[in-house]
Fold:
Amino acid sequence: MTALFLRDLILSVRAGGGFGLALAFFLIVTVLVPFGVGPESATLALIAPGILWLGALLACLLSLDRIFALDYDDGTLAVLATAPVPMEGIVVVKAAAHWITTGLPLVIAAPVFAILLSLPPAQFGWLILSLGLGTPALSMIGAFGAALTVGIKRGGLLLSLLVLPLYVPTLIFGAEVVTRAGSGENAGTALAFLAGITAGSLALLPFAAAAAIRVNLR
Amino acid sequence: MLRFCRWKGQPVTLTATDLACARGGIPILEGVSFGVPDGRALILRGPNGIGKTTLLRCLVGLQPLLRGHVAPGPDACAYASHADAVKTALSVAENLRFWSEIYGAGGIDAALQAMDLTALSTRPAAQLSAGQTRRLGLARLLLTGRPIWVLDEPTVALDRASVALFAKAVLDHCAAGGSAVIATHIDLGLEAETLDLSAYRARELGAGDFDEAFL
Structure:
């Protein structure tokens, strides 16, 4: 298990691994928004939570199809399925590696990008907290989608169509946390819902994803 | 003299009883029965599309059987398919070390040596030739520590010297009490029994059979 985790991390920083891709995409999205919306700080601060969450979500989506597709193509997934490791564990480990390489950098870099969107510094803490609680769900739900589409040639688009609707609750509550914190309301409820979604997906989806992979390997 | 590679303390005999397998929902093999005692190898033969790969995938549990029983279970089998399960971004040694940790095996030196990969160990797998990649894929088998090797066309892309090297690895595995089921079209130079799958082709579901279910 540890070996698989480390291997996924190493592969992501080697040539063609795509580490930093999500971060660069996130940066471009946040830089482009003021060009489209206009530079007024008040407008930007109003939409910043939503844009930041949407950017994080799309950046996460970029590398989802790599979670299982590469291992499926070179036969590694079939061998892992016959190896003495549970498929559920493989799913969790690969989702965790995906979060470390895409979600975690986004969480850490988010305050820097928030400056570009004139988000008031008082909300930075809430932004980090909500992204930190929410992005693991993005990786886990994404891993489930990737498991469903593994083995389909050019399954990336189908994966996006499957996964994006499942991201809606995370997006709503994630952005709501930051917005409520900005307007002085109680952000705790939204934060609790966000954490609940993450905990629920971490608890249930590994089993669903593992079942989907076993079917797709037949 | 015999160094038994023991599986739960006992030499393992692979027994397949009255197997039926399907590919894409269509039954292609039925009534396949065979036994491979420890120390022996079984060569599967048959024309393209007869179901060699399907049978092997059923043996290692990647695909459900329509009917029949295989003992012991998939946990006793090490599988090598057409794909080599090699990560091109990792070096030869890194690839093997990963599998060695997955299977809880010791060092990788013996496996490197057996497949003549020692000189290539620091080379990125992306730079290997097709035959060298195949040898790296087969070296993984030596790390699994499992008694039954299930191999699908293992000699594709191998030159004559590498085929001999591979045959020796299979012989050593059998001498240590293991066994192997190998689908291949070439002569490996192994003393092994041969099973021609042509005799087990599934009777096609004719229109008459289909109607019967509704009448």
